[in-house]
Sequence to fold (137 residues):
Amino acid sequence: MASRLNPYLSFDGDARQAMEFYREVFGGTLTLNTYGSFGGEGAPHADNIMHGMLETPAGFTLMGADSPPGMEVNAGNNMAVSVSGDDEAALRGYWEKLSAGGQVSVPLEKQMWGDVFGMCTDRFGVSWMVDITEPQG
Fold:
């Protein structure tokens, strides 16, 4: 898999409805994962979307999620650019350059879903997510 660049939208509790709407608009396959499915069972936000991805017949990929508890959503912080794939060296290189001089909110490290993932805001105020897919065994 080559690296790819995707928009990633943040929502304030209505990610499911928004992503389902985008599926109606663009068609395609929608995958939704809740916080509860990754160990947050019973938490007040367990049914909120931790990660959603719409892949369309036109080749579009749109990602989105409900913001984690405690992270406010407002104009200016409701979108991030996601770079993902399995080329670890290239993706780590992107991370190093994007995070240099910026602010890291989630260090680039292995996450509960198995991938190596990090979030940062670059020196120009653009939010980035880097996800290195776990190799298939």
In short: The radius of gyration is 15 Å. Residues 35 and 45 are 7 Å apart (CA to CA).
